[in-house]
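It is worth pausing here to work through a concrete case rather than discussing structure prediction in the abstract. The textbook approach is simple: state the sequence, then state the predicted structure, then interpret. We follow exactly that order.
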Amino acid sequence: MTEPFARPSAPLCVVTLTYVADLTAIDAAMADHVAWLTTGYDNGLIIASGRRTPRTGGVIIMRGERDAVDAVVATDPFVAGKLATADVVAFTASMAAPALADMLG
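Step two, the predicted structure:
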């Protein structure tokens, strides 16, 4: 087994979205949300994202300090449109799998 890399200075946030609107409204805004996610990936802010199981919201792993992530998350069409609430948990990655090491540096 490969040893994880130490990365004590890698600020990350886990964002959990919780839908507060019905899935019809969520599906109607999905294209805008996916465009927002794509911009986040293109800018190097988002590392991973996906639906929660069961489909009650989503999870996004983002690079950056809490205040910066809060500002970006506020522009998510689901959040800005009051279709979902967001809970942001900041943490500093002290260890990561080697495949993620470059993304966290």
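Step three, interpretation. The chain has a mean pLDDT of 91. The first helix runs from residue 23 to 42.
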